Amino acid sequence: MLHDRVLVRLSQEEGERRSSGGIVIPATAQVARRLVWGDVLGVGNSVRNVKQGDRVLFNPEDQLEVEIQGEGHLVMRERDIHAVATERTEHGTGLYL
């Protein structure tokens, strides 16, 4: 990856979800502007806050799709990432968002 770009693979958590009240929400339900989690596979040399292997939260509708070895991935700028979930401990106690 070049500059401030990040290569992300969507998490395979698609499908039915269950609300906190126990209602099953089917995968085909339309939800307005839902953010999703993905796994970082590669980062450019100007990326400062995201490392390969981190899980990131982002809007998949605003990103560019690319196919690598038959699998779909997304390419985005670092600034388009809303949150990072990581287990790196050098700046804190563990998982942070």
UniProtKB/TrEMBL annotation:
Keyword field: Chaperone
InterPro entries: Chaperonin_GroES (IPR020818), Chaperonin_GroES_sf (IPR037124), GroES-like_sf (IPR011032)
First and last residue of the signal peptide: none
Domain of life: Bacteria
Family per record: Belongs to the GroES chaperonin family.
Designated name of the protein: Co-chaperone GroES
